[in-house]
Amino acid sequence: MQPEKGLTFRSVLLAIAMMVVIAVWTQYGEFYTKVVGVSGGSPPLGAFMAFMATLMLGRWFVSKWRWAVLDRSEVLVVYTMLLVAVPVMASGVMHFLLPVLTGQSYSAHVNDSSAQLKLLEGVPSWFAITDKDAAVGYWRGAEGVAAPGGLANIGYWLKGGVPWEHWWRPMLLAWLPLLGSLFAAMLCISALLRKQWVEAERLPFPQTVMPLAMLNSDSDAGVPWWRKYFAGRAFWIGLAVPVLIHGVNGLHHYYQAVPEIRTALRLSEVITEKPWSAITADCTFSFSPLEIGLACLITFEVGFSFLFFYGLTRLQLLWAELLGLSGFKGNSQWWSTGTFPFFEEQGIGAAIAFAFIALWMARRHLAGRIAGVLRPGRPSDAGEAMSARGALAGLVVSSLAFTIILWLAGMHPLMAAGVFGMYVCLGICIAKVRAEGGLGKQPFTDSIFFLLGGTTVFAASSLGVFNHFYLMCPGVMMVLMGVQMESFRMCDSVGLSRKAMTKALLIAFAAAFVIGAYTMLTITYRHGMVNMTSYPAFAGGFAHSQLVYDMQTPVKTDYLKLGAIGFGAAVSALLTFLRYTFMSWPLHPAGFFLSVSRASDYWSAVLIALAIKWLVLKWGGLRVYEKVYPAFIALIFGDLAMRAFWAIVATLGLLTQGQAGYGG
Asked: How far is 498 from 478, CA to CA, in rounded Å?
């Protein structure tokens, strides 16, 4: 059987090799020494660096070993595999999953907490770490423990000092199939919705513009991308902005004598008098070339809607201040729930409604795809990532696997099904918001069941199991559906089969999970979680102690916050109705979701981008806009390239040994 174009042995092997390098780099440089971070950003910095390295090495190999040069489809496979892998190996999954799996046992045994020990009794050993020594070893490490000599030393270092007899079951029998089933379910939904979003609605997918520009200008018989783009004046002007900012600020980071170019202004420092200071709470005007470049690629409708609703959120804060409710948290004191007017809860409602709206808009397309279940091989399945029958079967199997695993772990099956549905809705919402707005971040959702029923409705075992999903809040599992859809969008540009892309994404997730778990466990058992980056360490213990507190001081259903969820859903539904009823209606529901989600910091970039586009189109017209367009790509490329440069400088210790690197 001939390998599919793009999905070749060498492309997969190269991607996995790069995963290993990035995983080691991330765990040591970002998680332990705290010198540099390569897993953050959108796209992740590590994935961008690997993508550029593959392109540049390919051009160098042309003159020496042409047979070793990867074609464009293979480069895309490597890049998309790393888009999935980098966050899974680091801050998206592993940096929060492993502390949460050990935090309850460690805290219960070290603090000798009877309440936590009682909760721990209901946690199966195949779902989390319940052994005292395994948990304490993870958090305190083995510093000062001498390694065995002779041949035993080889096995010791391969094992990494990790008690694998306690870890292999939770990781391979519970969390890999659990998160893998969620990833597969989102992949099936992406396969069903791809044609609607890409061909019918023609969404812009801003995250795909920069990599496609690099790939499409670097074809086998074409001109290298750097010659095509670097020859244009607009590209050079756009590139100069991030190079200047990050170049000067990077030098300032190491040498204080170099002046800094300030790129952020906290408006709370400007407006300090009450009640007006409420408007500027957590409001920062920032100048990020990467975000501005992405914002330049979104539509005026989405950008204007975002700014309009963001302005309304400021007015809501002023209203709360005038009413004396600015610090009110309602019945639930769960840490991730917001204060009045409850933007987090509004974001949850908006996300759920936006997901259902996306499915409703695609109802005719989905009906046509589902009709293929009875008649497989219909033209509607041609060229898709999977057949309608395969996608629906995969979705059913994935949902059942997810629900059964949580049920066996102690969660009520209806609650488990609700968790699955909630995460799928968030995935659909964020994928479409990314496709229309460039960036999309999920609201905190770990508190939703405490709001729905308080701690008096759901059993302690169900809440205890759900508490392990703390990683879904700061993590990026929901964002991965956006990556899947963007990967399918890029396939056509390089002639890559979407079926091959589906296989590549599944391989990437499984490989990243194993590589990320191994590298992180070996470093934490060597140096101790208490010596790692503070936030995941805090999360691992605090999530469980907060649950114990809530169980000891039970709260009832928080109807006020549920009302905020309903308000967010109602606004999204109303905006959709008005948008499709009145052709000239200017407000987009994606803008509302962005304004109340954690992507609200995006506002200054959108404001600057819309101003640039308006000025160019008003004074130069469409012809000038087309000439300026490469500058938008240059802002994205230059920002990522400069961050990559300083990451390498920090890793090699070229300026100041051991000093935390410049993060941009």
From this structure: 21
CA distance 91 to 519: 13
Name which of 518, 519, 491 is nearest 504 in CA terms: 491
Angle at the Cα of 405 from the Cα atoms of 401 and 408, rounded to 5 degrees: 140
Tell me which residue of 332, 235, 388, 274 sits closest to 546, measured CA to CA. 332
pLDDT at 228: 60
Looking at residue 170, what DSSP letter applies?
I
Backbone angles phi, psi at 505, to 5 degrees: -65, -40
Is residue 599 within 8 A of residue 439, CB to CB? The reply is yes
CA distance 111 to 178: 30
Distance (Å, rounded) from C-alpha 592 to C-alpha 308? 8
Contacts of 502 (CB under 8 A, 6+ apart): 187, 191, 385, 386
Which tokens go with 482? 């956006």
DSSP code string of 280-337: TTT-EEE--HHHHHHHTTS-HHHHHHHHHHHHHHHHHHHHHHHHT-TT---S---TTS
The pLDDT, as a whole number, for residue 60 is: 55
pLDDT for residue 283: 87
Contact in structure between 595 and 310 (CB atoms under 8 Å): yes
Query: DSSP per residue over 190-242, as a string?
Result: HHHHHHIIIIIS----GGGHHHHHHHHTS-TTS--HHHHHHTSHHHHHHHHHH
Residue 110's Cβ-count burial label (10 Å; 0-12, 13-18, 19+) is middle
Q: Which residue from 306, 328, 330 is spatially nearest to 319, judged by alpha carbons?
A: 328
Look at the block and give the residue holding tokens 């941009």. Answer: 664
Q: What is the pTM of this model?
A: 0.90
Question: pLDDT tens for residues 365-377?
Answer: 888 888 767 665 5
User: Rounded to whole angstroms, how far apart are CA atoms 290 and 238?
Assistant: 11
The whole-angstrom separation of Cα 18 and Cα 236 is 30
**Is the CB of residue 336 less than 8 Å from the CB of residue 444?**
yes
Fill in the amino acid letter for 60. W
Q: Is residue 339 scored above 50 in pLDDT?
A: yes
